[in-house]
Amino acid sequence: MSFNESNTVEQMVLDACQGLGWKFITGPQLTRQPGDVFVESKLRETLIRLNPEIAAQTDRADEVIYKLRAILLTVQNDGLVRSNEAFTAWLHGDKTMPFGPNGEHTTVRMIDFDNPANNDLMVCNQWTYQIGTLTKRFDVVLLVNGLPIVIGEAKTPVRPAVTWVDGAAQVHEDYEQSVPAMFVPNVFSFATEGKAFRYGSVRMPIDIWGPWRDAGNQGEGSLADVRKSISSMLRPQVVLDILQNFTLFATDKKHRRIKTICRYQQFEGTNLIVERVVQARIKKGLIWHFQGSGKSLLMVFTAQKLRMHPALGNPTVMIVVDRIDLDTQITATFSAADVPNMIKAESREELRTLLGQDVRKVVITTIHKFGEAEGVLNDRKNIIVLVDEAHRTQEGDLGRKMRTALPNAFLFGLTGTPINRADKNTFWAFGADEDEKGYLSRYTFQESIRDKATLPLHFESPEIRLKIDKAAIDEAYKQITDNLSEQDRDDLAKRAAKMAVLVKTPERVRGVVEHMINHYRAKIEPNGFKAQVVTFDRECCVAYKAAMDEITGDPECSAIVMHLTQSDPAEWRIHARDRDAEEKLLDRFRDPADPLKFLIVTSKLLTGFDAPNLQVMYLDKPMRDHNLLQAICRTNRPYSKKTHGLIVDYIGIFDDVAQALDFDEKAVQQVISNLDDVKKELPIQVAKCLVFFPGVDRTVGGYEGLIAAQDCLPNNEKRDAFAVEYSVLGRIWEALSPDPCLAPYETDYRWLTQVYESVKPPSGNGKLLWHVLGSKTIDLVHENTELYAIRDDLETLVLDAELLESVIGVPDKKGKALEVSLIARLRKHGKDPKFVALGERLERIKEKHEQGLIDSKEFLKQLLELARDVVEAEKKVDPVEEQDKAKAALTELFQQVKTDETPAIVERIVADIDEIVRLVRFPGWQQTSAGEREVQKALRKTLLKYHLHKDQDLFDRAYGYIRQYY
Questions:
Q1: DSSP output for 84-103
Q2: How far apart are CA 917 and CA 127, in angstroms?
Q3: Which residues neighbour 24 within 8 Å (Cβ) at sequence distance 6 or greater?
Q4: Which site among 253, 638, 814, 818 is 20 to 30 Å from 338 CA-CA?
Q5: CA distances from 879 to 868, 874, 876, 965, 966 (A)
Q6: What is the DSSP string of 632-677?
Q7: In angstroms, rounded to a whole number, what is the distance separating the alpha carbons of residues 898 and 309?
Q8: pTM tops 0.90, yes or no
Q9: Own/partner pairs for 560-564, CB < 8 Å, 24+ apart?
Q10: DSSP track, 822-852
Q11: d(CA 226, CA 194)
């Protein structure tokens, strides 16, 4: 018996769900039409059962269903996220209808959240949905009361290059786009190939779909591991908990609505806190989640669930931070997520008033507001305090005053960097004796990297002449202490004369800044990322800014962000900004198209500052322990095409990583990996890739050279194994480029890249291993494209089909040539369903040949028949139809990204882009540097006309559409 997706992965999911309480039914057995999103009979029964007002007059159920159907119809105009948000409000029970006495509005309940088993729970396969002539089939659908709230996609477990990414791409790029109505009730979707399990919410980019783990399920790689994830996440109570308490709709900086659902560590952390509060036995707990893994959202989810919990009697939830910038960041997170009943205590007096008046809301404040608190401010037992960055000020006087002011409150500390020392002890302050190792929930650095919640960090050290004497650093460490004010720290630094003089030597300042600029231009700027410069003190901030302005001749490319006082020199005060101006500056920094590239700081923006497009930190300040770890983790946020964060160390901190990161947990010392170690991996990985091609002459170009290489990868097993090794090499290359150490391997790498591209499946299967190449790799390939200059004689080969006997003597060679030619032709047509189907047919023919089911003659015959069908399909492609498809794709893009600032006449923008691109493009332009340059220039020119040229995301997406459709 053979293994395939339906009898292995799909069946395993169905069996696991049945074991969790979902009742199995096949799609055809459901009482619904192919065009129905709901099973209306089940929904009607539930509305009558859960709502006495509807039971009293059953036709009211049809009024509710009519309202729900109306939301499905709005998805084309409102977009999927907004329609999903509107539907979620009904699912939550937030909507009312005039069904009470005298037309009074009463709440409509569609789901019983208190008792999950009191709902109609079904798991279904073979669910087909039809709209017009378009039909889509879903592998697994979970229905609650007739509503499809979870959709799952299963993929084959026996092909390494086909992974969960293929299933996620099918959901995200195909189903959500072509049949969005099916996803209006959706809570989340999942994908698996039997090795890994990943889930995401509507319109969530695939690269941030996450795994689901719990204490008993940390492994990955087998059907048994996937079954554990399913048995944990797809429990009815977990699905409904995610719907009710772990789903947020927020507005991003570009005024777009986005849907966010929890990662598993946030789900676990929140529920452990809530459970502890409800039990009211232990009054504290420490949440230790590594920097950048989502503690702000964890607090949002926790605050929401605590406020809504019926057993807690309308509690007060206090969010306490220890810095103004963190206060701003946390408030922004809560505000963007539309958390109800949220208030900021802006002053000490206001905090005392709020607590004195017994306000029952989410209150955000700083620890310093407790500084003048005397005695008890509120002794209520249902006050829950969540302390952010709990390691810094909580162990001192401020922490004691807060505890005195709120004697019966629950206190939960959240930190990415706990401390266990005699003078400062986070575990003493928040850790409960009952908790193993002192923490209630823990999410380590290694776990966050494994789950891609954060990126790995690399460091490199520039030439030694820029470094400072080690003894001077040690002296500065003794002088500079954590708990002094900014001003005191400056004064102490100046008194540490030896260090300050060495750091601030004009020759050194200029040398450091020159190195930063050259490094940035060579390694960071080409990928569109930005930089943070951390200097010794505020005087250095000003000196570095002056040097940078002089060297670049561009004052707009950098800005200083630092604390300033009235007594500071006038030349410093020109850099002063109020809070609103500073936030606008940071938004500019986060904008990839804005010319602001460098933020120069000394202590601000080293905690709580999130800019995912920040990749490199130029570090020229002595730091250690949690201060150092928090600072360098500004660079570890995931972002498109970003593979790692980078620290360039000018002061010698990382000469001894163990000393710099002096934590009890030695694992934290693995946070940083030296780029020198990565360089050592390069020749090893090149050799691992070349070993696939024994005896191949890599100097032979064109058709013959490529076929010789492909002959060494005769089947999927070999090709997938090569793809695995090449993927590792590609990541190393992107991390190091353009380091001179790459030069000896450039020819081999270019050759391997072109072979890799040539054997990718034409239908696009296997998106995880057969990944999109990095920008530096693409640039390298464009410099030399002779391997792509394959002669395309497909029509001639088709004409030769009648003369098959004349080529039968060399079927292998002729077959390989035809296969290469076919793949090149099929790729030209992008995602056109007709050509995707032909690509899949080609893969099936190749697999049969590789498995020995057909011989070389039959292989060539079937290829020739396929070639004839490809040529016929190309003849039927209507140029007008292709043109309409291209314009429709661009129109859809502009509708998606449209904001208040976007010009109203989208059609005119699209028409202008379409016209100018068609003028400058030429056949095969995507494969040449000149072609890409001309089309990019044309696109920028058109966007400039409509003042949209600064939106880099829009440019990238529009250019992607043009590459695909033109």
A1: HHHHHHHHHT--EES-SGGG
A2: 41
A3: 14, 17, 18, 122, 123, 124
A4: 638
A5: 20, 10, 9, 12, 11
A6: HGGG----TT---EEEEESS-GGGGHHHHS--S-GGGGGGEEEHHH
A7: 38
A8: no
A9: 560/600, 560/601, 561/585, 561/586, 561/599, 561/600, 561/601, 561/604, 561/605, 562/538, 562/601, 562/602, 562/603, 562/604, 563/486, 563/538, 563/603, 563/604, 564/538
A10: HHHHHHTTTT-HHHHHHHHHHHHHHHHHHTT
A11: 6
| 51: region left, alpha or beta (phi > 0 left; psi from -120 to 50 alpha) | beta
Q: Kindly state the DSSP code that residue 292 receives in the 8-state scheme.
A: T
Distance CA 140, CA 154 (A): 8
Taking CA atoms, 416 is separated from 269, 322, 395, 631, in Å, by 13, 14, 16, 12
Q: Evaluate if residue 665 carries a pLDDT over 60.
A: no
CB-CB contact of 405 with 377 (8 Å): yes
499-516 per-residue burial string, b: 16 or more CB within 10 A, e: under 16: bbebbbeeebbbbbbebb
The set of residues, in sequence order, having a beta carbon less than 8 Å from that of 244 and lying 6+ positions away, is 92, 113, 308
Is 855 exposed, middle or buried, given 0-12, 13-18 or 19+ CB atoms closer than 10 A? exposed
pLDDT, tens only, 21-80: 999 999 889 999 999 999 999 999 999 999 999 999 999 999 999 999 999 999 988 899
Q: What is the SS3 assignment for 354?
A: helix
Question: CA 322, 323, 328: angle at the middle one, nearest 5?
Answer: 120
**Do residues 761 and 770 touch, judged by C-beta distance below 8 A?**
yes
Say which DSSP state 855 is in: -
> Rounded to the nearest 5°, which phi and psi values hold at 291?
-50, 130
Token couple for 308: 């809504």
Instruction: Report the DSSP pairing between strands 598-601 and 530-534.
Output: parallel
CA dist 293 and 453 (Å) reads 6
DSSP string for 562-619: ----TTS-HHHHTT---HHHHHHHHHHHH-TTSS--EEEESSTTSSS---TTEEEEEE
Report, in angstroms and rounded to the nearest whole number, the Rg of the chain calculated over CA atoms.
30
Helix (H) or strand (E) holding 387: strand 383-388
Q: Which residues of 225-248 are buried (b: 16+ CB within 10 A; e: fewer)?
A: bbbbbbbbbbbbebbbbbbbbbbb
Q: Are strands 342-344 and 284-289 parallel, antiparallel or unpaired?
A: unpaired
CA-CA distance, 603 to 752, in Å (whole number)? 45
Evaluate whether 90 touches 110 at the Cβ level (below 8 Å).
yes
Ranges of beta strands (E only) in 88-154 are 96-97, 106-107, 121-125, 127-131, 134-138, 140-144, 147-154
Strand pairing partners for 366? 321
C-alpha distances in angstroms, 255 versus 87, 251, 586, 815, 891? 20, 5, 16, 53, 19
| Percent over 90 (pLDDT), the chain | 36
- Tokens 């039997």 map to which residue? 194
Nearest to 95 by CA among 71, 128, 119, 125: 71
Contact 524, 563 (CB under 8 A): no
As a whole number of angstroms, the distance between CA 299 and CA 401 comes to: 23
Cite the DSSP H helix spans in 250-316: 264-279, 295-308
Residue 881 has pLDDT above 60, yes or no: no
CB 144 within 8 A of CB 111: yes
Reading the block at residue 646, the tokens are 């980078």
Summarised one tens digit per residue, pLDDT across range 885-923 is 666 666 766 665 565 555 555 666 777 777 766 666 666
328: helix, strand or coil: helix
3-state secondary structure of 415: strand
Residue 270 makes CB contacts below 8 A (sequence gap 6+) with: 245, 246, 262, 298, 301, 302, 305
Whether the link from the prior residue into 738 is cis, omega within 30° of 0, is: yes
**Nearest 5 degrees, angle CA 446-CA 291-CA 520?**
95
**d(C-alpha 739, C-alpha 743), whole Å:** 8
DSSP category for residue 339: -
User: What is the C-alpha to C-alpha distance for residues 113 and 240, in angstroms, rounded to an integer?
Assistant: 7
pLDDT score of 280 more than 60: yes
